[in-house]
Amino acid sequence: RKKEDSDSIAGLLHTLKCDEISVNSIVRLGARSDDTTKPRTIKLVLSSEAQKEKVLKQAKNLRGSKDYDKVFIYQDLTPRQRERRRELVKELRERQSKGEANLIIVNWRIVVRRERKE
Fold first, then answer.
1. For 36, which DSSP code?
2. What are phi and psi of 47, to 5 degrees?
3. CA–CA dist 105, 107 (Å, integer)
4. Gyration radius from the chain CA atoms
5. Cβ distance 95 to 103 under 8 Å?
6. Cα dihedral sign, 75-80-81-83
7. pLDDT tens string for the chain (118 positions)?
8. Is the CB of residue 85 less than 8 Å from the CB of residue 77?
9. Could you tell me the end-to-end alpha-carbon distance of the chain, in angstroms, rounded to an integer?
């Protein structure tokens, strides 16, 4: 299983164009269960803060890939930060259901997404 996890992480980092990233450890979180519909979270420990920031910045590019379309990468949060994020997501969904569009969460606030200049 560990070999399979490390191979899939290597493929994921290659897709993100982060081949030079060095991973210190790969750990599956949570108890192992027979339910295969929801895989357990994988925790990566990277060598430096700069490498972490690069991976997090590139993570948005997974949305378009066919192999990793349902994979999400996010920074490890404290319990207080997770609660705050949960509240923001709830507020975001309420505002979207009322008709507001192009909203995203940035720096612990809900803001309108900027238009891309091409």
1. -
2. -70, -35
3. 7
4. 17
5. yes
6. positive
7. 888 888 888 888 888 888 888 889 988 887 877 767 778 888 899 999 999 999 988 888 888 788 887 888 888 889 999 899 999 999 999 999 999 888 888 889 999 888 766 6
8. yes
9. 43
